[in-house]
Every structure is written in C-alpha cells, then in structure tokens.
Design a protein that fits this description.
Layout (H helix, E strand, L loop, with lengths): L2 E4 L6 H14 L3 E4 L13 H23 L1
C-alpha cells in the first residue's frame, strides 16, 4: 500500500501543487500532511492579519486545491 507523508508546506501553493502532481503520478492510497499546513507570514504590526490569512487559507484556498485534486 503506497502512502505519501509530508509536512511543513506552510501554505505554499507551489508546494501543494508539487505534492498533488506527485500523488497523481504514483496514485497512493492516502496523502497525509503532518502539520504546518497554513501560511506562516507573521506581521508584528498587525497580528490579526496573520490569523485572518491563515483562516482564509484553511477555509477557502486549501479546500479548493483539494477539490481540484480529487
């Protein structure tokens, strides 16, 4: 049974696309992302923007990329 495990993608669309391209190629049973899914750009002057950016990524961008992958 083939599986892919990765972590530390930090919201990088290019890293997610590389992961999904590889998954399409080898057709694993599962793709597991171990952590650090969301962007990590910290803004000392506006920490709310950081949280908002992560929320937007997790609610909108990541689900969209996963739907496109399926």
């Amino acid at each position: 049974m083939k599986m892919i495990f990765t972590s530390d993608l930090h919201g990088s669309k290019s890293q997610y696309m590389t992961l999904f391209k590889y998954a399409r190629k080898i057709k694993p049973y599962a793709v597991i992302i171990g952590g650090d899914l969301a962007p990590k750009e910290w803004n000392e002057e506006n920490p709310e923007m950081y949280i908002s950016r992560q929320r937007d990524f997790l609610k909108e961008e990541l689900p969209s990329m996963i739907r496109d992958f399926k």
